[in-house]
Structure formats: structure tokens, C-alpha cells
Amino acid sequence: MCTLQLHLLLLVDLMLSETARPQPSSTARALPTSWGLEPVTPEVPTSAPPDSSESPNPWTLSMPVNATTDPFPALPICVCDLTPGTCDLNCCCDKDCDLLHPRTVFSFCLPGSVRSSSWVCVDNSLMFRSNSPFPSRIFTDSSGTTQFCVGVNNSKANYFQKLQTVNATNFQALAAEFGGQSFPSTPPETQPPVLFYRAGDPILTYYPSWSVVSLLRQPVAVGAGGLCAESNPAGFLESKSTTCPRFFRDLASSCTSEPALDAASYYNFRVLKVPRGMTDLQNMKFQVPVTLASQASPPLLAGNTCQNIVSQVVYEIETNGIFGIQKVSVSFRQTNLTVKPGVSLQQDFIVHFRAFQQSKAAAPAAPRSGNPGYLTGKPLLVLTGDTSHSMTLLQSEGNGLCSAKRHAVQFGVNAVSGCQLRPREVNCSHLQEEVYQTLHGRPRPEHIAIFGNADPAQRGGWTRILSRDCSVSAVNCTSCCLIPVSLEIQVLWAHLGLQSNPQAHVAGARFLYQCKSVQEHQRGIEVSLTTLVNFVDITQKPEPPRDQPRIDWKLPFDFFFPFKAALSRGASVQKDCLVLILCVLLLGLLNSQTK
């Protein structure tokens, strides 16, 4: 009888062990396993995951030998590569830099130049060994807690947005639905230099005649009146142009005594190659003279005219990385000004940086406004015929009249400008043509670049600018001339591509004119003109993708599950199962009687 009991117990135990095994669902993902004596650690998202662009530290765990996942895959696009054939500053994906470890050279990596990644972290004390095929690192937060983190695939960071179609039919609807205004924030502060110039650092100058160290100045307009501020320093590697007016109460006395009007005041000094040149001002190898690239004459008061005064200053500075400034040249544009009370002068100051020993024989490639998507603040590219240039707005001189110079339209920056125009033409058709050219500039933009790296030779990268001119039928006066007085440039743009690294593109643009009628053949009139640009974001964000599948273990919920499963297999085994159940009950009765 004991032998029969033993056989029955073994039979029941085998059936229970076979049916009680966990059954993974069809959507389950295989988990990495290891036969070593190590604890199994669940993946718990950390509240502050580590920076995806942080370089590996000495405690970074090595990956398994059989792993096939590249922990730092190459980026398919490089959004900050804006200068062809030249290494862009802090652009860690620029192939022209030819750097194996860019972070050892750059102080930081620009957004979009490193791949975005997600991390899952747990307390480091819970980990004994990692066999994850993904890159893993150990981080210490501000409280001193050490965490073990594993980089995982993030489906949301690799989710593409679709391109929208904009035409004349839906342009107004999209502009009304997504219309809005935005303005840029203040620029970040720069750290003072130590041994070599960093981007944005002020450039040091030295006056040998007075043994004085100063800064290279680039006057800029400040205040409501836009007067010139002399104290504004030029930033290293920051090519920019500034314009400001100067007003003179007595130009006769200021003509030869005002340093801002004399070309010699812009090159009678030396530029320090690197900041450490201040430690030895007598050492000429740390100093670069400013050479003249054009003829410049001193100011001269001849009768009622102040001659040879400076109206434009252009600095060309050649740099060589951490070795600093290698060459500085300056060119001028001079003009004559009539001496009268309250006379004004508008001056332009341009500072341009380029790489040292760059070839001047071949025409340099035009800088991009993004690669591929537009970057905020970069020029808005337009096309006229086969010529690419920037879209511009009106610019006024010191007396309020329209200037030949124009403001460049910056992508994503809403702006408005105006000036007074004194037409030279009196004929209606010629007057209309002159005002139209003054509003939109010369040459008139015909197409606008969809992306910031558009090639003029590829017409598929450009879209035509829609235009609505003034209606001549609206004028009832026979001796009147209908002229435009306002131009509104509407630009519809949107983000597309990865949500973690979206690319801005122009979906469409149009010119809207507002007109008024003036008397034809009337001389000496002044027309107030206004131009404004409005950027409208029409991005439609899609539904986010689903999360990663989770493990769903299916376990039996009652003791009689193996018997129910056996009974469901068919009627042929029902008799055997009943006998088995009776044997188990009989065995239980016998055990209770023997006790």
C-alpha cells in the first residue's frame, strides 16, 4: 500500500510541475539572463536622467563582446554644419572638424550635434554585474547617490513628423489658425578668457604711443534715439554688422576734432593675438598690426563742407584656433557732409572673421541658415532668378528718410520698420515701380528657401512667394495714382522630423500690400512706408507612439487548474482523471487514519 501511495504522489507532482510553469504572452520581450550568481534588478526610471551628451567617465562599464548595438551611432544630419569646408565652432558632428573626441576641444556641443538618448537608472548598490547589450554608465548626482544607468531605445525620440502642404487655398486658414508672435531672449553671458580667446570674448588692443591696453570697439545703436554707443566691444569669432547715427550741433568744430570721423582712429593700435600677450606688452610676437585695405584721407573742412569723414568701417580678422588672431585689415568708405545745424551721419561698422590662410582665389560658399532646418535668427533665404540672397526690410537714416541699406530678415523673428520716401518720379507708373522696389528691395524676391541649406541650382528646394498687389479698380479718381504704402511679409513655417531634434522649414510665404491714392504729377511729396514680417508656426504635432511592450506572465489561479486543463483536452481522458482524483482522496483518508 505504501508503494501505491508513493507512485500516486509522484504522478501528481509531475502533473503539477508541468502545468504550473509560467506562460509568456505573444508580445513579451526576451530579457537578458545570466547563469552567474547575481541579483536580478528591475528597471526603474530615474527622476533626473543623465545628460545624453555627457562623455564617458572612468567608471563606465564595458559592453559585452557579442553586443552588436553601436553605443554612439553617427547622426544622419548635422544641423550646425553651416559653413561648407570649415569647422563650425562647438559643432560636434561637423565632419570638417575631423575630431575623434570633439568634447576635448569644444567647451560644449551645440543642440542637435549629438544623438539624443534615454536612460533607465537604479541604485548602483543593487547591481552586481551588467550583461545589457546597451551602453551603461555610473553617475553620481548632487546628493552623492550613485546610480547605475542603461541607455535604451526611445521610440518618441525617433518618431518622424510629416510634411504639410501649403498652397493659395489653405494659406489664409493656416495663418489664422496658428498665428502668433514671438521675440528672442537675451544672449547668454560669456566667460572671461585666460590663455586664449573663446567665442564671444572681447578682443584686446594695445596703443604703443600711450602704453594703454583697450578693447576693439564696434559701436552699436542704443536707446530710443538709436545713438551710437562707443563702449560696445567686438566679440571674438562673432561676425556681425551694426549701424547707428551721429548728430552734430556744430559740425564745423567737430569735423577735424571728432575721433569717430577720422579714419586714423580705427587703425592706430595693435591687436593682441591671445590674451596672455598682456603679460609682456613689449613682446611683438603677441601683437598684430592693423593694415589698411583701402586708401583713407584725414578729415578736411573746406568752406561749408566737411570732407573725408568715415561712413563705413570694415574689419577683416583672420584667426587660427587657439593660436589666436593672425591678421587684421581695415577698409573705409568716406563721404562729404554739408555743415549745417543738427546735421546727422549714419555710420556702419562691420567685423568679419575667417580662417587663417583661407584661399581667396575661389569664391567662398554662401553660409547656410541651417542644415537642413532653419535656425532662429539666421537670414531668411530668397531666390531671384538664379541668385540667392537674403530677404530684407526697410531701413531709415538718421533723418528718417529711406536708406539704401536694408535690415536682413531673421528667421523666426517678427520685425517692423519704416521710413520716409521722397519719390524722384512723378509719372504714376514710374512712381508705382519706385515704391514697390523700395518696399521689397532690389532685386525683388521670387522664391523662398524651404530649408536653410537650400541650393540655388536645385529648384525643388524653393517655393514661389505668393503676392497680392494693389487693385487699380478701387480708385475712382482719374488724376490719382494708387501706390503701396505698407508691405506685410507672412511666412508660414513648421517643424518636421524627429521630435527630439525637429527641423524648421518654410511651408509658404506671401506679400500683402496696403495702398493709398496720391495726386499724380505732384512734386515734393513724402510717402511714409512700412514693412513688417510675421512668422506663423503651423506645426501639427502627431499622436505620440505607444510605449515599449511589457512582460505579461500568465500563471494558474487555483489548485485544480491542471485537472481542468486535462479535462478540456477531450472525453478520452476523463475516466483516467476521475480515477486519479479518487486515488488522491483515498490517499488522504489513509494518511488521516494512520496518524
From TrEMBL:
<dbReference type="InterPro" id="IPR040354">
    <property type="entry name" value="TCTN1-3"/>
</dbReference>
<dbReference type="GO" id="GO:0043065">
    <property type="term" value="P:positive regulation of apoptotic process"/>
</dbReference>
<keyword id="KW-0970">Cilium biogenesis/degradation</keyword>
<dbReference type="GO" id="GO:0005634">
    <property type="term" value="C:nucleus"/>
</dbReference>
<dbReference type="Pfam" id="PF07773">
    <property type="entry name" value="TCTN_DUF1619"/>
</dbReference>
<feature type="domain" description="Tectonic-1-3 N-terminal">
    <location>
        <begin position="59"/>
        <end position="171"/>
    </location>
</feature>
<dbReference type="InterPro" id="IPR057724">
    <property type="entry name" value="TCTN1-3_N"/>
</dbReference>
<feature type="region of interest" description="Disordered">
    <location>
        <begin position="23"/>
        <end position="61"/>
    </location>
</feature>
<feature type="compositionally biased region" description="Polar residues">
    <location>
        <begin position="49"/>
        <end position="61"/>
    </location>
</feature>
<feature type="domain" description="Tectonic-1-3">
    <location>
        <begin position="196"/>
        <end position="355"/>
    </location>
</feature>
<comment type="similarity">
    <text>Belongs to the tectonic family.</text>
</comment>
<dbReference type="GO" id="GO:0007224">
    <property type="term" value="P:smoothened signaling pathway"/>
</dbReference>
<comment type="subunit">
    <text>Part of the tectonic-like complex (also named B9 complex).</text>
</comment>
<keyword id="KW-0325">Glycoprotein</keyword>
<keyword id="KW-0732">Signal</keyword>
<dbReference type="GO" id="GO:0060271">
    <property type="term" value="P:cilium assembly"/>
</dbReference>
<protein>
    <submittedName>
        <fullName>Tectonic family member 3</fullName>
    </submittedName>
</protein>
<dbReference type="InterPro" id="IPR011677">
    <property type="entry name" value="TCTN1-3_dom"/>
</dbReference>
<feature type="domain" description="Tectonic-1-3">
    <location>
        <begin position="369"/>
        <end position="538"/>
    </location>
</feature>
<dbReference type="Pfam" id="PF25752">
    <property type="entry name" value="DUF1619_N"/>
</dbReference>
<feature type="signal peptide">
    <location>
        <begin position="1"/>
        <end position="22"/>
    </location>
</feature>
